[in-house]
Amino acid sequence: MTNVLLIRPKPHKDTIGLKHVMICEPLELEYLVSNLEPELKDQYHLILIDMLLDNTKLSKHLKQYQPSVVIFTGYNTHVNLIKAYSKEIKMFDSTIVTAVGGVHVEVVPDDFKDVHIDVLLWRNGIDAFNMLLRGLRANTSIQGIQNEIDQQMLNTEFAYNPPDRQINAAYRAQYYYMFHNPCALIKTSFGCPFKCAFCFCHEITGGQYYERTLEDVISELKEIREREIYIVDDNFLVSEARVRKFIEILRQEKIDKHYLIYGRADFIAQNAELMADFKAVGLHGVIVGIESVREKDLKSYDKLTTVKINEEAVAILNALDVECYSTLIMPLDFSKKDFNDLKHWLKKTGVNFVNLQPLTPLKGTAIYDDYVKDFIEAPSDVELWDMAHIVLTPKYMSKRQFYFRIWKLYYEVVMSPKHLIRLVKKYGIRPNLKMLVGSSRVSMQYILKMIRG
Ligand code: SF4
Hints:
alpha/beta; metal-binding; Methyltransferase_Class_B; binds iron/sulfur cluster
């Protein structure tokens, strides 16, 4: 029996991220554990290390477990970190096989091509993982294993065992998303039928959208111990019929949980009654891509929504007392007036949870090439491409001023006394203190950006 380490790295210290206000379970690694092929189980012992919660140094894990294989998962911001860890692993023992999976390698595998990384699990991660271990057991060459992985077609059936949530039992109480605490993740569909120009999500499945059956989803849901459920579909509100059926089953089966989902504003605006039904069976929050309060931006992003639709969606969620976590993109030509207009719109509509993202053309998206000439951060400094750093030259103000405007807007919207009083009434003091500590850390990162530029 040899050890296989499954590692989720901690983000780089320079990455500004939501890590201070949310830590979600590494679902993709849990899927690997539950789907290890039976004939491989007597040979490989899987160990999951979540470096977001485990501060032990990699070198100590290597000494303790003496693994034969180490597999990383990560986003674009992890590329350099994973390369550095892989180098450290090879220096420790050059016979350890290193591999990378996760959403970034699925879209931009070339980013992980590195002398210290042996295998790229870039397509059908779970199948590729088993191919890797099967290949190693059969003494297949690394190149032979990679060839087998590369030759796969995209598997859209998703006939896998539910994730193993026992493997990280020690960490589970610490997984949360803002006020959803503790919180478990579930994925019911893959990709998105829409094609917003800036979006990375639909690139992961090569533009395809596919779903798990609701029977399968519900059977997994019933086994989850946490009451707070974060449905991490790129867009859960795709089909009215599917959402309706999901609500019906929850009602019939008397499943008593709270849900946080991603959904589009146009679906919400067109389905007010359905959203009320969803609220009645536990819908607590929707992350909505509002994206902009300027029509021209929505058009240029191919968002297929309008400011009016966004306003209708927010009004519906507010009337239902369902939290609206809105994401907003600030392009290069954002002026002081645009920041003010955005603030007034957010105050007018009652949107209090905002994720303000300076426009970030991620590698692998449709808009990447259009903006190369505007880059002020090198794409190789991946830790800064976190959708919070300013990576493009602002047109009407300095980079420092742009950071200042973002930081100010966060404070004016999220920290408004009216909003804070509402939060304390709704969630109590302790969760609010936790959020305050987390948001202060994010705030400090912005302040450093304002000082250092
Ligand atoms: S932004 Fe949302 S709606 Fe648009 S393609 Fe991405 S997931 Fe789909």
